[in-house]
Amino acid sequence: MAISTGLLSVADLTSLEIQHLIESAAFLKRGRKANALLKGKTIALLFEKPSLRTRASFEVAMWQLGGHAIYLSPAEVGLGKRESISDVARTLSRFVNGIVARTFAHETVELLAKYGTVPVINGLSDYEHPCQALGDLLTIVEKKGDLKGLRLAYVGDGNNVARSLVLAAAAVGMDFSIASPPGYELDKSALRRAKKLASQSGAKIAMMSEPRHAVDNADVLYTDVWTSMGQEAESRIRRRAFTSYQVDAALLSRAREGALFMHPLPAHHGEEIAKGLLDHPQSVVFDQAENRLHIQKAILVRALGGKPV
């Protein structure tokens, strides 16, 4: 599926499309020719999960582009319970120009795209978080100037963020190493897709269990929560499994000089990161958060048929 008809996975994009999105986002971030690109367009924010960054950034993005966003909460829609996913998709397609879905199951996003007749953008699912990964690439480009040949080290759960990151890194030629406890590694399907992309871009992908080995010589150190939304029942087990996977200043010091520290937020201080790490001089976490807005403007312009930038 091309981005002109939605974005469900980073794997929907070619390396050139990713590069164009980053360039477009940087252009829009400078405030150039943005306020009428999506004039008269409306998106539905169809959310099953609570949200700070995803909701706020998409609403502000549409406003800055001259369009509108309608937020639809779980209580209002009852997706798949009060009303079938297929019926919701077909109904919303008569009202809006696009759907941004933040769901528990990735299958829900796929069904919305299957039955809807407007572009569907994955605002987060249990399998991928493409908008986050693309915004992260924008942040890295801003700080490092390029992507190809850099090394991104990820410490923690092989979750939705990790999947989108490995696909994005592999597509643009950025090396990716991930350290996870046994049983929490990247799944074989995501790894297989990433290695296929890496074979074309020249990127190297490595999986291991020791965080120090993953971080050595890294240009970017990335981590995420140990327990994602929907996994609360596993939190005690996960805290035990991930005890030695906390990122602190000592681990960051093993990376290359000037390495970036990244986290998609929300952060659990004292768990996956040491207290105070978000304020470390090498932290670009809040730059990441801001860049969600700008990359999503670029995604929306492409998806909803706005004038090219």
Summarize the model shown:
The protein has 309 residues and is an alpha/beta fold. It is built from 12 helices and 10 strands. The protein has a 5-stranded parallel sheet with strand order 1-5-4-2-3, with helices on both faces. A 5-stranded parallel sheet has the order 8-7-6-9-10.
Describe the overall structure.
This protein is α/β, with parallel strands linked by helices. The protein folds into 2 domains: 3-129 and 292-303, Aspartate/ornithine carbamoyltransferase (Rossmann fold, 3-Layer(aba) Sandwich), CATH 3.40.50; 130-289, 3-Layer(aba) Sandwich (Rossmann fold). 41% of the residues lie in helices and 14% in strands. It has helices at residues 15-29, 53-64, 74-77, 85-92, 106-115, 130-144, 160-172, 188-201, 211-215, 235-241, 249-252, 285-303, and strands at 6-7, 42-47, 68-72, 98-102, 120-124, 151-155, 175-179, 205-208, 220-223, 260-262. The strands form 2 sheets. It has a 5-stranded parallel β-sheet with strand order 1-5-4-2-3, sandwiched between helices. α2 (53-64) crosses α12, α6 packs across α12 and α7 (160-172) packs parallel to α8 (188-201). The relative contact order is 0.16. The model has no long low-confidence stretch (mean pLDDT 94).
